[in-house]
Amino acid sequence: MHRRSFCKRTSISVAGIAVLAGCNDNPEEETTTTEPDDNGDDPDSNEPSLPDGFDRLENVVDHGADPSGGESLLPVLESIDPDGAILYLPPGQYRMDGSWKPEEFQRTGVIGNDATIVPDPGTQTYLFSIDGRGDGVEIRVEGLTFDFTHPDAGGRMVHLKVRDELLVRDITARGTVKDGPSLVRVDVTDPDGEGVVERLRLADGATVESGITGCYVGNDNRGDITFRNCRIEGFPDNGLYADPPAGSITVDGGHFANCGISSVRVRGGSVVRNATVRCDEDRLDFDNMRGIRLTDYEPQDTPEPAVVENCRVEMYDVSHSDGAIELSGQLARAIVRDTQILTDADDVPAFNAKRPNSVFVEFGIQPSVEMENVTVTGSAADGEAIAIVGRNECLLEDIDIRQTGQRRGGISFRGSADNVIRNARINVTGEPISLDDSDAETLDVDVDDGDDRARLR
């Protein structure tokens, strides 16, 4: 599959609005037009234009769907041949009392326009369960809001598996979920396949009792998925949970906040860029409220680093946390650059690289960390701003640490050799640089512990 071809084909949904999903050099830029599209559709029409590669548009109301929410949408969906079809949901509310599981298709999709799916109370199922691992070339689901405001409402919004091309765009959950499966699962099952998830909005979260994830990239994933300008908040078991056994994840933009385990979790070979990640609610029952977690499904013998760049991570208030950015022992390497981290939460590191799994020694792999142009600020007390354990030949360059809380350390190495700290400014109340069974070369490092100031050459 050719990425540029896929990106071109995902550029039109509702007539009169053209949005390039996951392919624009400027992630914040959206292009709108009032001109008719290439198919000659009336720009005032509410119906979407037919995407390239699809054969026909099926308006579900023309097939007998009830947009007032009185009758279930499911029988109507099941009556339409999905192969090559875009099922269009006009404005309205559509009741769902079960799972739509289309079969025998190469391309299929659902596009809504101000369309709300209302699951029956107690319907704890996969509402749109589209499995294209066999012949499925492309799946797209766009423009749907799922209403979980009823106390007994639940269910997975979309459960999508496809070989080659996946597009999920403008999907919203409304209401805090109290029970049921995680809200979204996506898998691109071919190593050459690609997916785009754009403007997924899961802002109301879920209760701790639900134990669920916001969006999960499943264990069948082998392709590359881009998450662009998504908003995920308040889930007890990861907000974006994206460390499948294979494939790569790109998180480009978006807002992620107040989740247990982590708000963003990605595997090696992935990139988190231009994102805002925040924890500012002390949810006592949420476990380990980390901002970004970098980890592999299991240690790899040919590991790729996970990269965090041009992000802002803020830790104001948490139940407890291993770090604003945490590198787990399952992943050998990480790169953090051009990133701002604020930590007001006591004893929470801005960056925490845990001791790597011992299997990396058997693989002959040297776990390490690279940090460049990273700023750490805030009033956190105790612990260290940057903690690195068991990783050698780490490079920390252009680092600025200003932590005002009591007994707060700067950079801590434990069991780490041959490290370099270059061009750094460290202003903390505790030990600026701590070396425990470690060594580090310092070049142009200014340190200030509140009592004394020195420049390390």
Gist of the model:
With 457 residues, the chain is mainly beta. 4% of the residues lie in helices and 44% in strands.
The spatial strand order of the largest sheet comes to: 6-8-10-12-15-18-21-24-26-28-30-32
CATH class: Mainly Beta
- Domains (count): 1
The main sheet comes to:
12 strands, parallel
Q: What does the oligomeric state look like here?
A: single chain
Which structural class is indicated by helix and strand composition? mainly beta
Alpha-carbon distance between the two ends = 52 Å
Number of helices: 3
What is the CATH topology assignment? Answer: Pectate Lyase C-like
Q: What proportion of the residues is helical, as a percent range?
A: under 10%
Whole-angstrom Rg: 24 Å
Structure notes:
This protein has 457 residues and is mainly beta. The chain has a single domain, classed as Pectate Lyase C-like. It is 4% helix and 44% strand. It is built from three helices and 34 strands. It has helices at residues 3-9, 74-79, 359-363, and strands at 56-59, 68-72, 85-89, 92-96, 107-119, 126-132, 138-147, 156-162, 165-174, 184-188, 194-202, 215-217, 224-228, 231-233, 240-242, 248-252, 255-257, 264-266, 271-273, 276-280, 292-294, 306-309, 312-317, 325-327, 333-343, 351-353, 368-378, 384-389, 395-403, 409-414, 419-427, 433-436, 440-448, 453-456. A twelve-stranded parallel sheet has the order 6-8-10-12-15-18-21-24-26-28-30-32, with no helix packed on it. Strands 11-13-16-19-22-25-23-20-17-14 form a ten-stranded parallel beta barrel. A hairpin with a 4-residue loop joins strand 33 and strand 34. The longest helix has 7 residues, at 3-9. It is elongated and about 70 Å long. The N and C termini lie far apart (52 Å).
